[in-house]
Write a structure and sequence with these properties.
heterodimer; A: alpha/beta; Rossmann fold; five-stranded parallel sheet; four-stranded antiparallel sheet; globular; B: 221 residues; mainly alpha; 10 helices; elongated
Chain lengths: 200, 221
């Protein structure tokens, strides 16, 4: 069974111990919300689970693949604080590059993905000319083409209006109904059903 | 290899849409070299004696000026995070970015060098050797520079630190390149210098992308 296992994770930044001995399992279809005050280590935890940072101690495995392994990286999609978009490139060019970095996005229909997030006719618009909310929508349109099983979303609803939040929440629910796993951090109230929560 | 070409095209496309990012170091290269005849002497002999040193020092400073932006922009907007956690080989992506950097800084310097060599009264044979040394050594400047740029990517205003890290590594290139051009002015053999520059290029090409990848992962922690 493809489950995500976080075992005895500890993280220290400078002299601050952010969390220690953190363990949890996520089965296919589960959504986990990480909550906590500013600076409590939510982003650090997501970065560790994505394989971007290393923990002080502990381990993360998904489907018997360890974090940092190529197989693990193929199964995970991480969207961080920043939209990962370049201002000089158009929405489509940005998505094409991000898709190239992850082969789990197969035969992508970028136009459809942008339509889904309400950015029809913005395909060739330079990202630098979009508003913060539109940029966030472009980045989140990856959720409509990604085939990765584990989604790690750091503050995905930042800058989004209520319609945008609904679109993304519904996409997260669809992903988990298909057996995917999602871990997200957000300070906003969420209408996602069957949300598990851990607090740091 | 696909990711190499994709990254290379992306970086070049971005640079041409925001040309100031690579034109500033080039302008610095042209302007500073053209100021030397005014500041020192318009005498052909004096200028041709110091021309190899001038052109090579200014080349290094121009490359150093442009190195700061090699990874910073992608770090600030989060693209570098996606690059690091991608399953694609990080060293190949960094080699593509370094190649784009060389095309935008080293290559224009090579193209402009005959003109500036003539302005400093270099003879045709010395200009030919100057181009040869630039062809061999400017890729090394970008490759070695990429290691320093990866190390300081997460540090704000790291220009000074980058120079301190990288300049000592540039010194052997400066010595061999300037001595090759100077010796060619007197008709002396320059094979040794060219072999050294060639071997520095091969070693940097073989190692710099991997070292940059390790340095970048450490910096992103």
């Amino acid at each position: 069974m493809s489950k995500l296992t976080v075992n005895n994770l500890s993280c220290q930044r400078g002299y601050n111990l952010l969390f220690e001995n953190l363990s949890f399992n996520l089965n296919p279809g589960e959504i986990l919300r990480i909550s906590g005050q500013n600076g409590s280590g939510k982003t650090s935890l997501l970065k560790i689970i994505s394989g971007l940072n290393s923990p002080e101690s502990g381990s993360i495995t998904y489907n018997q693949s360890k974090a940092n392994s190529e197989k693990y990286q193929l199964e995970t999609l991480y969207l961080g604080h920043y939209a990962s978009l370049s201002s000089e490139l158009s929405c489509i060019e940005n998505l094409e590059y991000l898709a190239n970095l992850s082969t789990e996005i197969v035969s992508p229909d970028f136009h459809k993905a942008l339509r889904e997030v309400g950015l029809k006719n913005y395909e060739n618009e330079l990202v630098g000319q979009l508003s913060a909310g539109q940029k966030r929508r472009v980045a989140l349109s990856l959720l409509f083409i990604s085939q990765s099983k584990v989604w790690l979303l750091d503050e995905p609803f930042t800058s989004l209006d209520s319609d945008g939040i609904k679109i993304i929440e519904s996409q997260i629910e669809k992903h988990c109904l298909k057996g995917g796993i999602c871990i997200l951090t957000t300070h906003q109230d969420s209408n996602i059903k069957n949300l598990r929560e851990i607090s740091l | 290899m696909n990711i190499f070409l994709t990254t290379l095209t992306r970086d070049l496309k971005m640079a041409f849409r925001n040309p100031s990012s690579f034109l500033n170091p080039l302008m610095f290269f042209v302007i500073s070299i053209s100021l030397f005849p005014i500041a020192i002497s318009p005498d052909a002999e004096t200028l041709s004696n110091i021309a190899p040193g001038i052109i090579w020092v200014i080349t290094m400073l121009s490359v150093l000026l442009s190195l700061n932006s090699l990874f910073h922009y992608d770090y600030d907007n989060g693209v570098l995070e996606q690059v690091v956690i991608s399953h694609q080989p990080l060293s190949l992506i960094l080699l593509a970015k370094t190649t784009a950097h060389w095309i935008l800084t080293g290559l224009p310097i090579i193209v402009l060098s005959p003109l500036l060599g003539m302005a400093l009264f270099l003879d045709s044979n010395s200009i030919y050797i100057l181009i040869l040394t630039l062809c061999l050594a400017t890729p090394c400047l970008s490759l070695i520079g990429s290691i320093g740029a990866s190390l300081v990517v997460s540090i704000k205003n790291s220009g000074m630190l980058l120079s301190l890290l990288i300049l000592p590594l540039y010194i052997p290139i400066l010595i061999f390149a300037t001595s090759a051009v100077s010796q060619s002015q007197f008709g002396l053999p320059i094979n040794g210098q060219l072999y050294f520059l060639g071997s520095i290029l091969i070693v940097s090409l073989m190692t710099a992308p991997f070292v940059s990848a390790i340095a970048l992962k450490i910096s992103m922690e």
